[in-house]
C-alpha cells in the first residue's frame, strides 16, 4: 500500500484526536511494520485553546491501560495549510466537520475530509462523543470507537 498522510481532528486536540493518532499509529505498526515509518500521522484541534498542552490525563490513562503511550503528544491548532500536507483529514463530530470545511478552499480540499466513524457506520452520521465533560466511561467509549475505526480505515485503504 502507498504510504499516506493522515490527520485526526477534534476540538481541543487533547481528548479524542490524540488517542486517534496513537491508536492509528499502533494499528499501522502492527499491520504494516515495514512501511509504517513512511506514513505521516498527526492530530490537531479546531480550537487553539489547548495549544502546547499534552493530552488530557484521562485520555493518557486510558491509552496507557491499553499499552499505548501518548504522553509525548502536544495540542496544536488545525490550519488551512493542513489541506496541503495531508491526504485524509478524519474528524470526530459534525462540529469539527463544519469548522474544518470552513477553511477549505477547493473541492480537492473538501474531498479529503470525513467523519472518523463513517468507515465503520456508513451513512449513519455517527460521532465520536466528546468525553471532556463526562466521566470515565466516555473515554472508554471513545477509545473503543477509535480502535474499531482505525482498523476499518486501514483495511479500506488496503483494498
Ligand atoms: P477534544 O475534547 O475535542 O476531544 O480534545 C475537548 C477538550 C477540551 C475542551 C472541549 C473538548 N474544552 O472545552 O476545553
CA-atom Rg in angstroms: 14 Å
Under the CATH scheme, the architecture is 3-Layer(aba) Sandwich
Number of structural units classed as domains: 1
Amino-to-carboxy terminus distance? 9 Å
Going by CATH, the homologous superfamily would be: Response regulator
Remind me, CATH topology? Rossmann fold
Helix-strand category: alpha/beta
Helix-strand pattern: EHEHHEHHEH
Number of strands: 4
> Taking all residues together, what is the mean pLDDT?
97
Bound molecules: 4-nitrophenyl phosphate
Bin the strand percentage: 5-15%
Q: Which outline best applies?
A: globular
Low-confidence stretches: none
State the helicity in percent bands: 40-55%
Largest sheet, spatial ordering of strands: 2-1-3-4
CATH class: Alpha Beta
User: How does the major sheet shape up?
Assistant: 4 strands, parallel
H/I helix tally: 6
What does this entry look like structurally?
This protein is 41% helix and 12% strand. With 159 residues, the protein is of the alpha/beta class. The longest helix has 23 residues, at 136-158. The mean pLDDT is 97. The structure holds 4-nitrophenyl phosphate (4NP). 4-nitrophenyl phosphate binds next to loops.
Which labels suit this protein?
alpha/beta; globular; Rossmann fold; 159 residues; four-stranded parallel sheet; binds 4-nitrophenyl phosphate
At a glance:
The chain has 159 residues and is of the alpha/beta class. It is 41% helix and 12% strand.
Amino acid at each position: 500500500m502507498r504510504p499516506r498522510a493522515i490527520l485526526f481532528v477534534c476540538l481541543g486536540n487533547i481528548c479524542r484526536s490524540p488517542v486517534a493518532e496513537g491508536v492509528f499509529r499502533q494499528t499501522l505498526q502492527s499491520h504494516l511494520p515495514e512501511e509504517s515509518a513512511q506514513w505521516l500521522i498527526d492530530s490537531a484541534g479546531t480550537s487553539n485553546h489547548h495549544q502546547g498542552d499534552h493530552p488530557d490525563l484521562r485520555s493518557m490513562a486510558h491509552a496507557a491501560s491499553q499499552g499505548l503511550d501518548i504522553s509525548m503528544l502536544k495540542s496544536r491548532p488545525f490550519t488551512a495549510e493542513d489541506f496541503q500536507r495531508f491526504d485524509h483529514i478524519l474528524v470526530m463530530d459534525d462540529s469539527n466537520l463544519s469548522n474544518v470545511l470552513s477553511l477549505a478552499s477547493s473541492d480537492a480540499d473538501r474531498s479529503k475530509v470525513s467523519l472518523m466513524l463513517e468507515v465503520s457506520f456508513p451513512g449513519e452520521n455517527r460521532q465520536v462523543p466528546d468525553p471532556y465533560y463526562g466521566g470515565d466511561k466516555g473515554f472508554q467509549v471513545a477509545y473503543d470507537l477509535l480502535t474499531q475505526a482505525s482498523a476499518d480505515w486501514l483495511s479500506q485503504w488496503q483494498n
